[in-house]
Amino acid sequence: MSGKNHTTWAHHLPANFQSNHDYAKIFQILRILRFNNRETCSSRKQNDKFAAIHDLWTFGAFVIVDQQLVAFRGNCPFRQYCGLKFCILCDNETSYVWNIQPYTGKQPNQPSEENRGLRVVLELSYGLKGHNITFDNAFKSYELGQMLLKITVTMIGTVRKNKPSIPTELLNTKNKEVFSSTFAFTNNTMLVSYVPVVVQSTFHFNKNFPNSVSKKPQAILDYNQTKGAVDTYDKMVSCYTSKRKTKRWPVVVFSNFVDISAVNGYILFTKVNPNWKQNSLAKRRLFLENLGISLVQIHI
């Protein structure tokens, strides 16, 4: 949990926990924490930027693919702006993390990858069947929609306007009223230009306007309702996290891995026990306290 909760957390520890001595042990463990074999590290780094933690890393009807940026300012060969980027597949209803991939950019001694977004979505969604995936224009393409249909997975997503698959009639919005809609169809795909965005869907097949006031097509409403799971997960992690200030990026990745496991554990536990702490406003904090004590109790 975050540093401000150390005092509360310590009050729940067993009486034989010697705080100063045992905290020193914890900091010593954090200082020497490593996830890599030094003997083979140099050779594996030549072809894999993620080699320092790669060995450890391998691991609803509506889901979402989106990007997560984990804050980090140290030296890392694939740092993006002020952090490490991950692509996440989440359940829309609960924000349960189904799958995750790090973004490492161009690998050493390898050519630049084309259609990276297509590969990432297909790998993240491996094993899904009968689901719908929502994502933004960083991943969306007509080819991806067709490949997902082959594994009985539909999609909804915004499309960049420079895509050649978009008819010019949908791109010409100069004289169109704001929030007006123009549609285009193939036998299995629908495009709607809802000024000022373009959305592609293999989940919708008609011009449905359930809300006569906003005049939003059903595809736009469904996209808005199913795009926020990763943002919700980010908010959950920002409240209680195992991350500590460090200049070693594998430790940041490991902390993110712990945070994901804790969030997933909380989601599963509350689904199985819906009446647990039902009236409490601090359910997740209490769950994390109990989880931490359960994990360390047998080692004390």
UniProtKB/TrEMBL annotation:
> Record's InterPro entries?
PGBD
Question: Which intervals hold domain PiggyBac transposable element-derived protein?
Answer: 53-266
> Which PANTHER family does the record associate with it?
DUAL SPECIFICITY PHOSPHATASE 26, PIGGYBAC TRANSPOSABLE ELEMENT-DERIVED PROTEIN 4
What name does UniProt use for this protein?
A: PiggyBac transposable element-derived protein domain-containing protein
Q: Which organism is it from?
A: Dryococelus australis
